[in-house]
Design brief:
11 helices, seven-stranded mixed sheet, ornithine cyclodeaminase, domain 1, Rossmann fold, 23% strand, alpha/beta, single chain
């Protein structure tokens, strides 16, 4: 793992969204998480994130701190501050905004502040794609993206890194215009010429043919029904971060072998919290987490026919590792 490279007497730097895109290409970040997560979890401490309701029932302030207890391997403290305002869609604004601050854990000095929104969408997409590496079928062809918010394009690009066999991407959103916008964006994007992009209006049919279904919504009612999932499907849920949210029904949870990004998913993600409360499954029936998959302590996909399900709520550990890669990449270039 790289160490800090900047001058301790230097001024803090600001890493904007443009610099983050350059410093955190999806493949590099996926590889960094795959190689560093298993060892970093033993040296990084991160309390459960603070979540505070703010101006309305749907608006929240999230605080996500993390710090390393090893000043040699990972000399950083990081804090992400996030606001979630789902009603921003009516204003044509993203529903999530964030800032990230990185400190030197030895001296406490501020090293950098970053565009936390860009950091979040990239790390979230890369965590989902990394999980797909272990859980989806290696010959997956059809990707269905449910939701057309700011995270959706990142999920598509990241999933294409770990499953380059995908040649057909479908996008569903309650507002069809937003799906159209993403489809048009990708049809013009360099490097996407061999992939077919379509707007999906029949969600049941699309779920039924998709090899990978990735959901990134704020829905509080199930969008994916378990009976729609085909044999061998992988269901990726990243939108839920509180118990009232729910992107799939109990049948999907029952049909799939369920994995999580970390233990917080079992107390935050509505799909799981509700399933536990209704007796659909028990906590000890969760198959494992992302670190266990990376280390090989848990087996991911066992055969081509089983259904897998990955629930991700995010973690300050992944934020810190992503910020580390961004900071060290930027400072090495300057």
């Amino acid at each position: 793992m790289a160490t800090m490279t900047s001058d301790l007497n230097g001024s803090p730097i600001f890493i904007d969204a443009t610099k983050l895109r350059s410093a955190l290409p999806y493949k590099s970040l996926i590889n960094h998480l795959q190689t560093s997560l298993s060892t970093a979890t033993s040296v990084i401490q991160s309390p459960i994130r603070h979540s505070h309701q703010t101006s309305s029932s749907s608006s929240n302030l999230l605080l996500m701190p993390a710090w390393s207890i090893s000043s040699t391997a990972l000399p950083y403290i990081g804090v992400k501050l996030v606001t979630t305002h789902p009603d921003n869609s009516a204003l044509n604004l993203p529903g999530v905004h964030a800032s990230y601050v990185l400190f030197n854990s030895v001296t406490g000095q501020t090293l950098a502040s970053m565009d936390g929104t860009e950091l979040t969408v990239r790390r979230t997409a890369c965590v989902s794609a990394l999980a797909s590496h272990y859980l989806s079928n290696i010959n997956s062809k059809y990707l269905l993206l449910i939701g057309a918010g700011s995270l959706s394009p990142h999920l598509i690009r990241a999933h294409l890194v770990t499953r380059p066999s995908i040649d057909h991407v479908m996008i569903w959103n309650r507002t069809v215009r937003k799906s159209n916008n993403i489809v048009e964006e990708f049809r013009k994007e360099s490097g996407m010429e061999g992939i077919q992009f379509d707007v999906c209006e029949d969600l049941e049919r699309a779920v039924g043919i998709a090899d990978v279904v990735s959901c990134a919504t704020n829905s509080e009612t199930p969008l994916v029904l378990g009976k729609w999932l085909k044999e061998g499907a992988h269901l990726d849920l990243v939108g839920s971060f509180k118990p009232s949210m729910r992107e799939c029904d109990d049948e999907a949870v029952k049909r799939g072998r369920v994995f999580v990004d970390n233990d917080a998913a079992m107390v935050e993600a509505g799909e799981l919290v509700g399933a536990f409360e209704r007796g659909v499954m028990k906590k000890d029936e969760i198959q494992g987490d992302l670190v266990q998959l990376i280390k090989g302590d848990k087996i991911g996909r066992k055969n081509e026919k089983e259904i897998t399900l990955f629930v991700s709520v995010g973690s300050a550990v992944v934020d810190l590792l992503s910020a580390q890669l961004a900071y060290e990449t930027v400072t090495l270039k300057t």
